[in-house]
Structures are given as C-alpha cells and as structure tokens.
Write a structure and sequence with these properties.
This protein has 7 helices and 27 strands. The chain has 430 residues and is α/β, with parallel strands linked by helices. α1 packs across α6 and α3 packs parallel to α6. The longest helix has 19 residues. The chain binds ligand LQZAQKY5 and molybdate ion. Belongs to the MoeA family.
Length: 430
Amino acid sequence: MEPQARSVTEHVERVLALVTPLRSVERTPEDALGSVLAEDQYAAASVPPFDGAAMDGYAVRLADLPPDGSPVALQVTGDVAAGESDLAEVGPGQALRIMTGAPLPSGTDAVVPVEHTSTGRFLAGAPRAESSVTLARRPRPHVRRAGEDVRQGERLAYAGTEVTAALVGALTASGTVRVAVRRRPLLAVLSTGSELLPADEPLGPGQITDSNGPMLAAAARAAGADVVRLGPVPDDLMALRAALDEAVHSRADLIVTAGGVSAGAADVVREVLAAPAPGPDGDRGVTDADVATVAISPGKPQALARWRGVPWLALPGNPVGAYASFELFAHPAIDRLRGEKAPGGPRPVALAAAAGWAGAPGRLRVVPVRLVPLPDGGAGAGTTASAVGVVPTGSHHALSALAAADGLALVPPDVEKVCAGDPVQVLMLR
Ligand SMILES: Nc1nc2c(c(=O)[nH]1)N[C@H]1C(S)=C(S)[C@@H](COP(=O)(O)OP(=O)(O)OC[C@H]3O[C@@H](n4cnc5c(N)ncnc54)[C@H](O)[C@@H]3O)O[C@H]1N2
Ligand code: MOO
C-alpha cells in the first residue's frame, strides 16, 4: 500500500521552512540587477531635480501671451541648452530659445514648442539668428516640474522585490549610489545513478547521458542562483556522501540532488537519508530527514534533509519529474534564499485550455503546455479576457514536450479531465 500522499502545498511549506534568506551585501544599482532588495528604497533626491522644458521651443512669461490665444511678437534674447545653469532673467516681452531638458529660466513659466511659432523649426548646428519670434498661448505649459516624477524621500521599492532594469534607472535618477541586496545563493546540483555519464563521454550498453545535471543547473541559474555542478555519482553510499561533502566544502547554500529517491534497491539517496553519518568534528551528517510521497505527477517521490547542516532537496530522477519538482519546490527555496517577499517560484497565470486533456485524480498533474491563439479570440473562455489559451505539447513524461513548453499547467487533484475552455493555472517558464 502506498502511504498517504502529501499535498504539494504542504511540501512547499516544508521546503520553505528548511531555508532562510541570505545576508545582505551592498551593490551599485546596476550590479544589483536580478538581486532582491534587502531594504525598502527611498529616493535620495527629487526627479526631475529642477523645473525644466519638456519641448524644444521658447521659454516665455505667460503674462505676455494674450489669454484668447492671439499671437504676439516677443524679443529673443538668447539660448538655454540642456545642462546650462547660468541663466539670464527673462524680462517682460522677452523669450529665450530653450531645448528639452534645460532648466526653466527665472521669470518664465511656460514653453511654446518651436513648431507652433514663426520660427517653425530649429536647424541642428546652424547659427540661431532670429531676434524675435511670433507665438501664441498653448493649452499646456510644456514644463516638467521639479519632483513631479519622484519626490525626495518617497518610497521607490519595497524590500523583497527584484531589481529590474527599470528600477536601476529609477534608483540612479533619484540619487541612489549603493543598494542593499541579498547575496546570490550558491546551489550544488548533483545527479545520482550508476547509468549516468557526463555529456562528453561515449555511452556503453545500458548507459545514458546525465541530462538532469545540466538542465537543473540551468534552471537554477535562470532562477537567480549560482551553481556548482557535481557528479554524476554512482549508486554508492560512500560516493554520494563524498559528493555531498564536496557540496558543503564549496559553501553551497542549498544542495539539490536528482535521482535515487524512489523504491528501487539501488536508491542511494534513500540509503544515505536513512543512516546518519557522523563527521569527524562531531556533526551528525544527515539531520531532519523527511522522505515523502507527494501528490503530484510527475515528481511524486521527494525528500528533504540537511547534510552537515546544509539544506538538501532530493528530487526524483525522471527528467520531467525532476524539472517539474525543481520549479515547484527548489525554485521557491531559491526565492526564499534570495530574500523574495513571495517565494513561490514561477508566476502562475490563469489561461483557458484550448484543447482537452486528462488530469491525474488524487494528484496535481503538471502538464507542459504552449500558448496558442484561442479559436474564438477568447470570447468563449468565460473566466479570462485573454485571447491566448494553452495546449499540451506532448506526452507528460517526455523531455521533448517540456522543451517545447511555454509553461507548466497545474491541474488540481480533484479534476479528472480538463475540457477546452476550462480555466487552468499555468506557471510561465518564458
Ligand atoms: N516500485 C516503484 N517504483 C517507482 C516508483 C514507485 O513509487 N514505486 N516511482 C516511480 C517514479 S514516479 C519516479 S519519478 C521514479 C523516481 O525514481 P528515482 O528518483 O529513484 O530516480 P531514478 O530511479 O534514479 O531514475 C528514474 C529514471 O530517470 C532517469 N534518470 C535519472 N537520473 C537522470 C539524469 N541525471 N539524467 C537523465 N536521466 C536520468 C533514470 O535513468 C531512470 O530512467 O521512480 C519510479 N519507480
Ligand atoms: O514522480 Mo515520477 O516523476 O511521476 O515520474
């Protein structure tokens, strides 16, 4: 008899309880790209820092322009380019040529774009000769006010959010030179199985290439971790212990193994988990061992533990199961190490099924799917306004189906079959 299966949600909770956010480090905003903020970020300065022109044209005093919009001739007394600071006062009846981004000269309160004046346009590099200009009041002042984008002291971002390219821009514009972000986690990725060979070695009878190692290492990097890749290790107790020790020596924050967790006679991960292995310095080797059958397909056999204190996630060896459980269990662990506020792995979106497929009653079925246009443009999909839906990319257990997928559809344990038009939760992979 199979033991009672653990729900995916409960297993995720146990995974998250195994890890804690890493310490913070200081970086420039640019070098912090992809890391997670350790503290809320407040603007050190206002953006823009001064009142400036939003258009190339003429800086004018509104009091000089008739409110009814009729044209008026003004004396042009000079130029203001972006970056200038030494500005003459503009008196009544006067205007200054002004370029986008230049500070508004004192006395002026509006910019009239050049295309709405008697000048028509400025010629780049040509002498600016006009001594007067005829223009009229415009509906908008075309002035960017100091602080209208960001006010000094305003909160720009919360702790626990990832630094994006746009945030690098906003932080830098508002005077932030260093930010505190969580250190990038280091993952040790290790495949087990006596049948496995590294990719560059020719296969003998019964041997296969270790594809989980490179695949999970790539998934870890895509999730924001650095990777030390170990193995493949044969199904041998001492070899696996030695590889786990190597992971500890490389100062891994999390060990992820694939294979050897099931019911087979050679399932060496289970063997290591079952026997504590005291170290020379008195540590207990394996602690907190938790071997579980999780209600998920594929990816059912799972285990958690610490090896000499380092958190360890043991995933099954079947490649699709290994990948699915990486995204569902290891990715949230990486998120938590990285300090993410909501450590849930890839973002789920609700999309409509564009074709029907079978569920796995009693288990969460993970189905590699790709995005397709819905035949009716989404009108029949009821719960979603989206015009795209999803279809399975092939056999649930085939690596080729996974490679063709845009996401993983998650079909709950109580759903026997998915029908075209049904809403499904999809973890987006790209
Ligand atoms: N009697 C039972 N047998 C199995 C059960 C069960 O409940 N009772 N569960 C099945 C399920 S589901 C899975 S998943 C697998 C998981 O087993 P392991 O985690 O012990 O994985 P392995 O036996 O090591 O490998 C399974 C499969 O995947 C291939 N593999 C393994 N590692 C790699 C790798 N690094 N690269 C590419 N391919 C790999 C391996 O050759 C096997 O074909 O157990 C079922 N059995
Ligand atoms: O859990 Mo296994 O990964 O179903 O194939």
